[in-house]
Write a structure and sequence with these properties.
The protein is α+β, with helices and mostly antiparallel strands and 157 residues long. The chain has a single domain, classed as HIT-like (HIT family, subunit A, 2-Layer Sandwich), CATH 3.30.428. It contains 6 helices and 5 strands, in the order H-H-H-E-E-E-H-E-E-H-H.
């Protein structure tokens, strides 16, 4: 059995959980760069992950607060898929990954950190992007800061 080690996420796991919903609150603010929102669509938005597994870790999120995949409207489903494709295009053009992990964790047991507001993850992957640092040093090496990544990706959306 292979293991995915992500010890740097302990900061997220151990932090006091804010009241409210980050995916409802962030889009209501007019601070897209600070909130790492890259794109606002009609029913969904693209946001960078504040605790990324890799550089360029993005999420596609509906504005509506829901946890049931079947509750998405046809328009929301379509827009989410369109934005997923757009994210892979933008990341490929800007960061040149060798592949992607794309998925959704529905429910806390399935691994959702925010389980009451569904969202897709897009994680760019590069050959050799895992090494000894997370396992032995409890450190994830990210080659670019979040705001630096935002500045590079935003113009492509």
């Amino acid at each position: 059995m292979k293991k995915l080690w992500a010890p740097w996420r302990m900061e997220y796991i151990l932090q006091e959980k804010p009241s409210g919903c980050i995916f409802c609150d962030k889009p209501q603010q007019n601070r897209d760069r600070e909130n790492l929102i890259l794109h606002r669509g009609a029913g969904c938005f693209v946001i960078m992950n504040f605790y990324p597994y890799n550089n360029g870790h993005l999420m596609v999120v509906p504005y509506r607060h829901l946890s049931d995949l079947a509750a998405l409207t046809a328009a929301e489903q379509s827009e989410m898929m369109t934005l997923l494709a757009r994210c892979t295009t933008v990341l490929t053009q800007q960061m040149k990954p060798h592949g992607f992990n794309i998925g959704m964790n529905l429910g806390r047991t399935a691994g959702a950190g925010i389980d009451d507001h569904l969202h897709f993850h897009i994680v760019p992957r590069w050959n050799g992007d895992t090494n000894f640092m997370p396992v032995t040093g409890h450190t994830k090496v990210l080659s670019q800061g979040l705001l630096e990544s935002w500045d590079l990706l935003k113009p492509r959306f």
